[in-house]
Design goal:
- The protein is an alpha/beta fold.
- It is globular and about 70 Å long.
- The strands form 6 sheets. It has a 6-stranded mixed sheet, covered by helices on one side.
- Helix 1 runs parallel beside helix 15 and helix 3 crosses helix 4.
- About 40% of the residues are buried.
- It folds into 2 domains: about 180 residues, FAD/NAD(P)-binding domain; about 220 residues, Polyamine Oxidase, Chain A, domain 2.
- The mean pLDDT is about 95.
- Bound molecules: flavin-adenine dinucleotide.
Length: about 475
């Protein structure tokens, strides 16, 4: 353990979890490698507005069997986000605020679908999109919903689908596998716990056992601005794995744990791994889906929306949508709502999904802001002041991420390719020694797309090595 050199690639939550656990278990020679100039990966808290905002992970999703909750709750770091994403107003593109009775009934239908799908999808062969569409229109036909305007209902469903796409990171719900959607397991308890005015970065400090001034357990073990170009591994002989960097440097190690995102693997695996990864792993990289969702934060000089609003969603009337099709405003169709942010009195946060979200990443800041102001002023019937500050994310164009998080698509099902296939360690045939391992959120069977999934995956691979060495010392101990 003292001598073995371990390189952990990627300083997101998974890599940090793997590296800290190894050091805490006696491995001295652990180096955490990161391409960016900061640690955290898809946890990225920045100063903004009254305190901070999270450009990536924002909430701890659930309380039971959730290691993020387990670590943070004793320190009183988490708080419920309340009903922000339930109590929103529903506004049409002609500035009509949909009346409470109609919007509550429509919200009830989609909320019911979220509960019912946990049973229904078990035996469902289609996509989440077709399930939701059928469910929605069946419910709409029930007596209690007969008075609902069908045009508004259709607009509502279209908007709600965008919201669900933001949860999945899919471009369309019609590509999300209905059955495999159930692979994700919700942790019981509040699924929208926020980090008050501190941001998700506080969690990294907990993992690192740091007060924020240094890397704690990983002090002097982190290399930033180091991009891996290739990993040369060998299963036929007990040799070190060689990692090559863009600056030409090569570092050899006994074990490499790779935690780069599935987006990066999709783009680079054929050039990154020498020899290529086994076919089952390549199929998993191709088959598991990875999409993009981006965030938008607007800070205003003062709160201009009504006191009791927690947010509003944007319903496009067909004729209004037609007008922006093919124009420089088309991308705004997929900005589906604006919501308040806890501990940020003057900020509205928004989400944008799919190809339009990726397109936004290519626009100049001025054009993005102009578009967003046009959108808000089109939908709202009261004056909207010019923001004092704004920030949008670029998870797709950043070559160290290439998107936001993973999900299970129809293609995943067709290729029969799963997280378990992705996380198989590559070992030396004669000794079983793991030389190249995979962690990261996409390798989590049930908690993919989350921080708790990423951390568990990092711990899983650290434990694999700890067990390997323990069993070498004491062959009777478990593997
Ligand atoms: C917009 C958004 C919102 C989200 N919201 C939530 C949420 O509310 N709650 C939640 O639980 N999860 C959320 N997530 C998901 C969560 O952030 C991720 O699941 C988690 O952070 C993934 O961690 P990871 O360690 O697997 O990967 P990453 O965090 O991506 O870490 C991998 C690291 O590898 C580095 N890297 C990549 N290529 C190379 C290379 N060639 N050489 C060296 N280093 C490299 C990257 O720079 C990165 O730092 C969100 C994500 C996004 C993008």
């Amino acid at each position: 353990m003292n001598d073995s050199k371990i390189l952990v690639i990627g300083a997101g939550p998974s890599g940090i979890a793997a590296a800290t656990r190894l050091v805490e278990n006696g491995f001295q020679n652990v180096v955490l490698i990161e391409a960016e100039s900061r640690i955290g990966g898809r946890i990225h808290t920045i100063p903004f507005g009254a305190n901070v905002i999270d450009l990536g992970a924002q909430w701890c999703h659930g309380e039971k069997d959730n290691i993020v909750f387990d670590l943070a709750n004793p320190c009183n770091l988490l708080e419920s986000t309340g009903d922000v994403y339930e109590e929103y107003k529903v506004i049409r593109s002609n500035r009509q605020i949909v009346n409470e009775d109609t919007s509550n009934k429509l919200k009830t239908i989609v909320n019911e679908s979220v509960v019912r799908r946990k049973e229904d999808l078990n035996s469902y062969d289609g996509s989440l999109g077709s399930y939701l569409t059928d469910f929605f229109y069946n419910r709409l036909d029930l007596v209690e919903n007969i008075g609902i305007d069908r045009t508004i209902a259709k607009e509502f469903l279209e908007n709600y689908m965008k919201f669900e796409n933001s949860v999945e990171a899919s471009d369309t719900l019609f590509e999300v596998s209905g059955k495999s959607y159930l692979e994700y397991i919700d942790c019981e308890g509040d699924i929208l716990l926020n980090w008050k005015d501190k941001g998700y970065i506080r969690f990294l400090n907990l993992l690192l056992k740091s007060n924020g001034s240094d890397y704690g357990t990983l002090k002097e073990r982190v290399l930033l601005n180091k991009t891996v170009t290739s990993i040369n591994w060998d299963k036929t002989r007990d040799l070190q794995t060689e990692v090559v960097f863009t600056d030409g440097e090569k570092i050899s190690a006994d074990h490499v744990i790779c935690t780069v995102s599935l987006g990066v693997l999709k783009e680079k695996h054929l050039t990154m791994f020498k020899p290529n990864l086994p076919p089952s792993q390549q199929r998993a990289i191709e088959g598991i889906a990875f999409g993009t969702v981006n965030k938008i934060f607007l800070e205003f000089p003062h709160k201009f929306w009504p006191e009791d609003w927690t947010g509003f969603t944007l319903l496009w009337r067909e004729e209004d949508l037609e007008e922006i099709k093919g124009t420089d405003k088309e991308w705004l169709e997929d900005v589906f709502g604006f919501y308040i942010v806890n501990y940020q009195p003057n900020i509205l946060a928004s989400w944008i999904i799919g190809p339009h979200g990726r397109y936004m990443e290519t626009l100049e800041e001025d054009d993005i802001l102009d578009g967003l102001m046009w959108l808000l002023r089109k939908f709202l019937s009261f004056p909207v002041p010019t923001p004092s500050n704004f920030k949008t994310t670029k998870w797709y164009t950043n070559s160290n991420f290439r998107g936001s998080y993973s999900y299970r698509s129809i293609r995943t099902e067709e290729l029969d390719a799963w997280a378990d296939d992705l996380s198989v360690p590559l070992t030396v045939t004669s000794t079983g020694k793991p030389v190249l391992q995979f962690a990261g959120e996409a390798t989590s069977k049930h908690f993919y797309s989350t921080v708790h999934g990423a951390v568990e995956a990092g711990w899983r691979e650290a434990d694999r090595l700890i067990n390997f060495y323990n069993s070498a010392i004491d062959p009777n101990s478990q593997l």
